[in-house]
TrEMBL record:
Composition bias, Basic and acidic residues: 234-249
One Pfam family from the record: Amidohydro_2
Protein name (Swiss-Prot/TrEMBL): Amidohydrolase
Signal peptide: none
GO annotation, cellular component aspect: cytoplasm
Positions of the UniProt region annotated as Disordered: 234-262
Gene3D superfamilies in UniProt: Metal-dependent hydrolases
Length: 427
């Protein structure tokens, strides 16, 4: 849809341009509550599940006697203040309960002017890679199932306003299909996936191994979500957590003292933890360029024509350039008949019909680039409760940065695209 197609009568001075619009936040995070697993596991499994502990003032998840995962990005305190310059609040008791309790989350959403949220994991990573790192297959599967059961409970108790995206046991395709089917039957709308399963020793996403999963996505209408950082291994995520927190530590690409690096780290070693986080975050937004460009140059959408894919927390400012670059490189480089016939359509066409991107803090992208991307391909987010979340005033921000767009275009971006994509009842 173009801006011209979204025209409407001019608003009168003083009108609220977003009056009546139910904003759908398409990327917020659900912090794992302290009793997520202990409240569900039978007595016989209590020593085999993740347990939250605070040691030396730092709270983390422990499994099999070792630190397994962080508590995730949390910057909203119990008195609803956002702490700048922090990634994770410690101990866990400092975090506002809206991070992990349904009633309180709905309350803070009401205060922010948000109607519904699409939820992603927090401390355990943005796909199932942390879970895959658990060595025992039975323990791994039980922990994943309990996690997804918790997400179903969150959705069921949220008055149709919270929609968690579940994680999948992609290391076993039979289990993946079984878990997808189980959760779809219970109302889950989508799933969050690793964009680099090959880093875990699995095939790449377009290979035959993943065909049953893509077929179920295609037929069910469930959304496949790729959140930035979802392809990182557990050890990568934990190293980043250490290097940007009060703990000392290096990223996996940092060399040991006195040895040259094999691969350059994302940040310079001389930076402190806050600057490391800022530099890493600015680069991470564009990490989904890889999955977007590969998808748009593949034949995956020919094979699964109803597939819908979301690039979460990746912003939109880079998208017009990538669309233009894909088209240019396609014409310049894809000349052999076999290569031309590999996929039926051009990259921009695949993007238009199958992909969604989202923004939150951006101003230039929101005010000047929407038409180049496509009104029907853009969503919004708040990233609550992460460090750069739009708290406390996302509605005012969206109204300001999108003020030059027709009201119908604003409604489509803030409400209708997400409601249609995730099948959200608007009442």
């Amino acid at each position: 849809m173009t801006l011209e197609a979204a025209q409407h009568p001019e608003a009168q001075p003083g009108d609220d341009p977003l009056a009546g619009v139910k904003i759908v936040d398409c990327d917020a995070h659900w912090t794992e509550p302290a009793d997520l697993w202990s409240a569900q596991a039978p007595e016989s499994m209590q020593d085999k599940i993740p347990t939250q502990k605070t040691v030396g003032g730092l709270t983390a998840w422990y499994l099999n006697g070792e630190v397994w995962a962080s508590t995730g990005g949390n910057t909203i305190t119990q008195d609803r203040q956002k702490v700048l310059g922090a990634h994770m609040l410690h101990p866990f008791s400092k975090i506002d309960t809206s991070a992990y309790a349904v009633h309180e989350r709905l309350g803070i959403m009401d205060d922010m002017g948000i109607y519904a949220q699409i939820l992603y994991p927090n401390g355990i990573g943005f796909a199932s890679n942390h879970l895959f790192a658990i060595q025992d297959p039975g323990q791994r599967q039980a922990i994943l199932t309990m996690y997804n059961d918790h997400l179903v409970h969150v959705q069921d108790s949220s008055q149709q306003r919270l929609f968690p995206q579940a994680v999948l046991p992609i290391w076993d395709m039979d289990l993946t299909i079984k878990e997808m089917t189980r959760l779809l039957d219970r109302g889950i709308r989508g799933f969050t996936l690793s964009d680099k399963p090959e880093l875990l020793g699995l095939p790449e996403l377009p290979e035959s191994y993943f065909e049953p999963m893509w077929d179920l996505f295609n037929e069910s209408g469930a959304v496949a979500n790729f959140h930035i950082g979802a392809g990182q291994r557990r050890e990568d995520m934990e190293a980043l957590r250490r290097s940007t927190s009060r703990e000392s530590g290096r990223t996996p690409t940092d060399p040991a003292p006195g040895t040259p690096p094999v691969v350059a780290a994302p940040t310079w070693r001389s930076f402190g933890p806050q600057r490391r986080l800022a530099v890493h975050a600015a680069q991470m937004y564009m990490s989904n360029v890889r999955i977007v460009v590969n998808l748009c140059n593949s034949n995956l959408f020919d094979r699964f024509p109803k597939l819908k894919i979301v690039s979460a927390e990746s912003g939109i400012g880079w998208v017009p350039f990538i669309l233009e670059a894909m088209e240019f490189q396609f014409d310049e480089m894809v000349t052999h008949p076999d290569e031309r016939q590999f996929a039926q359509r051009r990259p921009r066409e695949y993007f238009r019909d199958h992909l969604y991107v989202m923004f939150w803090f951006e101003e230039i992208g929101a005010s000047k680039l929407i038409e180049d991307i496509g009104v029907g391909n853009v969503l919004v987010e708040t990233d609550l409760p992460h460090p750069t979340c739009l708290y406390p005033g996302p509605k005012e921000h969206f109204s300001r940065v999108m003020g030059g767009l027709p009201q119908a275009a604003q409604q489509r971006i803030l409400q209708d695209n997400a409601a249609e994509l995730y099948k959200i009842p608007l009442g």
